[in-house]
Amino acid sequence: MARPTLRSTSGYRSWILLTTLPALLFAAGTQGQDDSTPVTEELKQANHTACLHCHSKKYFSFVNAMTEDSVKKRMCDTYVITPEKYYRSNHKTFSCADCHDAAFEVYPHDPELRLTPKYECLDCHGGDEYWADYKFEEIYAEYEESVHAGLYDNGFSCWSCHDPHEYHISARNTENIKATIAYDNAICLSCHGNIDKYQLVTAQENPDIMTSHSWLPNQSLHFSSVRCLECHTEVNDNILVAHKILPGDKAVKNCVECHSSESRLLETLYRFEKKEKRSQFGFYNGVLVNENSYVIGANRNIFLNVASIVIFGFTLLAIFIHIVLRLISKKK
């Protein structure tokens, strides 16, 4: 199967938003293997120690073969890997050479090796029945229709949002909705909350997030309770997380989309929750009822709905009877 070529790296200021949505990184499992895969010292020694000896530090040293002098240099920030984050990632059991050119194992590296094309998601996950349930091909097709796909010439790819050295699945592996929201929103904010990174992929002005979302009532509550994806993607019934990012002028701005019994949140943020929860406790959209959220207009108790209709009906009946009695009394 021919591999489509994806696109590579990815802000704006908005420190308030970054404060509202901290990147809560929780341990998550590798797809296709148990989340509890132990990270033993043997695993570290066998696969990563040599590479992380330099790439986990801000500075590295080597001996110049010609002069035999010891040289110390600063490591480029984009090449620094945090071991703690790597060993929480989906790719934690891979050796570095599984994805990087094996010649990287020769130290120091040949500078030209930095230009070696990186693997993309479909290089490993595409066209393989083992990964069919995760629909990587469909995710790629959605991405191709997104606003991000147009950034190809500037090197945008899967890794622009999902750093392979840190990325882990959040939604499927935690019942903590707030953690999922913070983790996913932090991905968006890594560019849209960072002017330097944003300018790596586009010359367009990065809009002030707070201003562009000024139409939202209770802004901070929305930012901490829903993901950017809820309003900035199209709902796709076939994949867990939509990847067709819409232009800003096509984002959802209709409150009823979420604040109703047919809330789109059920097909986005809460989609991975068990369906049987939806009818618990007599609630419409009962899956939205948890210790972290209450969506006005979406969380409706069936019995209270019926009771309110009955009370309203009796109120109208009482008013009608009162009017009739007044008219009869007036005639007398």
Number of helices: 14
- Shape estimate: elongated
Rg result: 27 Å
Count the domains: 2
Q: In angstroms, what separates the terminal alpha carbons?
A: 92 Å
Q: How many DSSP-defined strands?
A: 4
Low-confidence stretches: 1-36
Largest sheet: 2 strands, antiparallel
Relative helix content: 25-40%
| Strand adjacency order, main sheet | 1-2
In percent, how much strand structure appears in the residues? Answer: under 5%
Summed over residues and divided by their number, the pLDDT gives a mean of 75
User: What structural class do you assign from the helix and strand content?
Assistant: mainly alpha
| SSE string, helices as H and strands as E | HHHEEHHHHHHHHHHEEH
Q: Which key phrases capture this entry?
A:
332 residues, mainly alpha, two-stranded antiparallel sheet, two-stranded antiparallel ribbon, elongated, disordered N terminus
